[in-house]
Design brief:
Structural class: alpha/beta
Distance between the termini: 47 Å
Number of strands: 33
Strand order of the largest sheet: 3-4-7-10-13-16-19-22-25-28
Low-confidence stretches: 4-29
Mean pLDDT: 86
Largest sheet: 10 strands, parallel
């Protein structure tokens, strides 16, 4: 019996672990507020405490959500937890600091440029926007006068203007986003912003630039991105002192374009190297993986990659995703051992059952005989 109870507990823990993010979660000591289809995300935010969590269950929510409190806003499943702007306004508008948005599809916002979009981070810092699908908006996502935000792991595509726009903002990190098939630019930084980092993004098949740095946008780092099949891979205008290296520029109509007196570093020196250019025609006589002659971008403005890579760059720094304990070999070894032990016990219990029944019958028979022998009427 004890082993049966133990097995039940193990299976219960297994079931709980499989539920993942569907568990009731507590943040800062407060229980998550659950929003179900038919409820309002905005009402949940209005009634939440600062620092609380709001867990939105699957469904389509036709809302314009204003996040005016520091909350963690989590969707049950990014594929079917949908914030739909019904082709007006902004899907999610963040106006405070330290907000987390994750696990949603944000779609069908209005189209007023740089005013309406999927997600608008508005004079707000320290936010984390990750693991969302952002599609069919005017602009997928834009940050304005907003610093030290992290935008990671989002799929941003088929927006009517740009995928991601950043204006007059500093120290933001865009990492591991997939930005493709937007009607204009993939990612654009402009307006005197700086010290932003674009790393490990996949930017492809946008109708204009993959990445555009414009209007005195300086001291940014563009590293480790794959930029392919755009009209312009990287376009830099009126922006200098940016570091651009270890990117893969593949089959863009124009791999890179620089104008308005922009001078930037297109490599990280030797032996680290510069970028991979799919149309580079130079040779590598010493086999060090770096081309023997520079890749010239704009000769008249002294923009060139002095150490072009001969093969696509691949990251060695990417952190490994932690493996949940229920996917570890030792966890399943314990589960199998417990199940096997229980099966053996059940087998021998069934095997002993006929013997037990025989003993009970014999005991009953002996009791009957004893009663008959001691009956004074016989």
């Amino acid at each position: 019996m004890k082993k049966i109870v133990f097995l039940a507990l193990v299976l219960m823990l297994l079931s709980i672990s499989m539920l993942g993010t569907r568990l009731l979660i507590t943040v800062s000591g407060s229980t998550a507020h659950h929003v179900y289809l038919g409820d309002s995300i905005q009402e949940a935010i209005n009634s939440a405490q600062s620092g609380g969590m709001i867990f939105v269950h699957s469904g389509t929510y036709y809302e314009h959500v204003v996040v005016n409190k520091t909350v963690v806003l989590i969707g049950e499943d990014k594929h079917d937890t949908i914030v739909d702007g019904n082709f007006t306004g902004t899907g999610i508008h963040i106006t405070v600091n330290n907000v987390t948005i994750s696990g949603f599809t944000i779609q069908n916002s209005g189209e007023q440029l740089w005013v309406q979009g999927g997600i608008f981070v508005d004079h707000s810092s320290g936010n984390n926007v990750s693991n969302n699908i952002i599609t069919n908006n005017g602009v997928g996502m834009f940050l304005q006068d907003s610093n030290s935000n992290t935008i990671s792991g989002n799929n941003i595509f088929s927006n009517k203007h740009s995928g991601i726009g950043i204006e007059r903002s500093y120290n933001n990190t865009l990492i591991g986003n997939t930005v493709f098939s937007n009607n204009y630019r993939g990612i654009v930084l402009w307006g005197e912003g700086g010290y932003n980092t674009l790393i490990g993004n996949n930017v492809s098949s946008n109708n204009a630039e993959g990445i555009h740095l414009a209007r005195q946008c300086s001291h940014n780092t563009v590293v480790g991105n794959t930029i392919s099949d755009n009209l312009y891979g990287i376009h830099v205008s009126d922006s200098s002192n940016n570091m651009i290296f270890h990117n893969n520029l593949i089959n863009n109509t124009n791999q890179a374009f620089v104008h308005y007196l922009s001078t930037n570093a297109w490599d990280n020196g030797y032996p680290s190297g510069g970028n991979y250019w799919s149309d580079y025609t130079g040779s590598d006589t010493n086999g060090d993986g770096i081309g023997d002659r520079p890749y010239v971008i704009q000769e008249e403005e002294n923009n060139q990659d002095n150490y072009p890579l001969m093969s696509p760059w691949s990251p060695t720094w990417a952190p490994k995703t932690p493996v949940p304990f229920w996917m570890q070999w030792w966890f399943w070894t314990i589960v199998i051992a417990v199940i096997a032990s229980l099966a053996v016990d059940v087998y021998f219990l069934k095997k002993r059952k006929p013997q037990r029944q025989l003993l009970l019958q014999l005991h009953s028979h002996l009791q009957t005989k004893t009663t008959q022998n001691t009956n004074p009427l016989r």
